[in-house]
Design brief:
Number of domains: 2
CATH topology of the largest domain: TIM Barrel
Radius of gyration: 30 Å
Order of helices and strands: EEEHEHHHEHEHEHEHEHEHHEEH
Number of helices: 12
CATH class of the largest domain: Alpha Beta
Helix content: 25-40%
Mean pLDDT: 95
Shape: elongated
Distance between the termini: 55 Å
Structural class: alpha/beta
Number of strands: 12
CATH architecture of the largest domain: Alpha-Beta Barrel
Strand order of the largest sheet: 5-4-3-10-9-8-7-6
Length: 343
């Protein structure tokens, strides 16, 4: 599968820097964040495309007041989204700028009108946010645009995940990425359950990855080691900017370090390899082999006292020791000789 020009089968881990609300109402902050994401090694900058009116209702009723131990408890949903949204009139400039500096860009649409709006920019993918995984019509409509579709599974049951996958395939879109996600902000490490990443790929026959809301880089680095092919992390120029998502977002230095560590993990994982390359062959000099540990005269018997398996590895393979013990020496040997006989 390819997202933009990135081939998930051979180009490593696709790393998404999530802009979210981290522009804090400033177009220049948004542009600077895109540039910073490119500089720290992200493969993509991701936007969110909604307005307060497309995502919720302007209601003062209790249902619309945030609660449950979040960073935003007590705030009205409408007010939070009005503060956090990325103005739609910015999108053209953001898409053009990202492409001018060669960083991929796409967005999370939150309703059909956002999908229609985003189509003019030909985004390389669509991302379904974790709280939207139950909006089957949004998934169907986004998937019908036949671009890779990335879905966070944070609050979904396994049946809802299956439904989402089936909906995508039902419209002929098989380019599906499921992201393990813990929908808490920030998310405790003990709730990450990264083992699910492997299971998502096996159970649903898709590419799997990790949308991270933990603090620090430990979780995404571990996720890559477990096989995550896509990593998404909230990114901010500087936490002093403030904003709705600042507290659980990663700054430039942290993101740069995370990208480096992920690329190092990719090198460590490598590929299945049992071949004898030049480095392995050279290192075999330090392996064990059979050497003469006492002088041996022609006609004497090879014993455990006069033949030993020791370092270095220039003599006969130790696997022949049992075959040689008890045999008669056909010539004289001196201490330290490599054992080399015709068998």
């Amino acid at each position: 599968m390819k997202i933009g020009n990135f081939n998930l089968n051979k180009d490593g881990t696709y790393i998404i820097a999530e802009l979210s609300a981290n522009h804090n109402g400033s177009l220049q902050n948004a542009l600077d964040t895109i540039k910073a994401a490119k500089d720290v090694g992200a493969d993509c900058i991701k936007l969110q495309t909604y307005t307060a009116d497309t995502i919720t209702l302007d209601s003062d009723k209790e249902d619309f007041i945030i609660k449950g131990g979040t960073l935003w408890d007590g705030k009205k949903l409408y007010d939070l989204y009005k503060e956090a949204y990325t103005p739609w009139e910015w999108h053209k400039e953001l898409f053009e700028y990202a492409r001018s500096i060669n960083i991929d860009i796409f967005s999370s649409p939150f309703d059909k009108s956002a999908v229609d709006f985003l189509e003019q920019f030909n985004p390389s993918a669509y991302k379904i946010a974790s709280f939207e995984i139950t909006d089957y019509e949004l998934i169907r409509y986004s998937a019908s645009k036949m671009k890779p579709i990335i879905i966070s599974t944070g609050i979904a049951t396994i049946d809802e995940i299956q439904d989402a996958v089936d909906i995508c395939r039902g419209v002929g879109n098989n380019d599906i990425v499921l992201l393990k996600c813990t929908s808490a902000y920030p998310a405790p490490l003990e709730d990450a359950n990264l083992a699910t990443i492997v299971n998502l790929a096996q159970t649903f026959g898709v590419v799997s990855g990790f949308s991270d809301h933990t603090l620090g880089a430990t979780a995404p680095i571990a996720a890559v080691a477990l096989g995550a092919k896509v990593i998404e992390k909230h990114f901010i120029l500087d936490k002093s900017i403030g904003g709705a998502d600042a507290d659980f977002s990663m700054d430039k230095q942290g993101f740069r370090d995370m990208v480096k560590d992920i690329r190092d993990v990719e090198k460590l994982i490598g590929k299945v390899d049992y071949s004898m390359n030049s480095k392995k062959k050279q290192s075999r000099q330090f392996s064990r082999s059979l050497y003469v540990s006492q002088d041996i005269k022609k006609g004497e018997i090879f014993t455990e006292q006069n033949i030993r398996s020791v370092r270095p590895g220039y003599g006969m393979h130790p696997k022949y020791l049992k075959d040689i013990l008890g045999k008669v020496a056909q010539k004289n040997y001196v201490f330290g000789d490599r054992l080399s006989i015709n068998r």
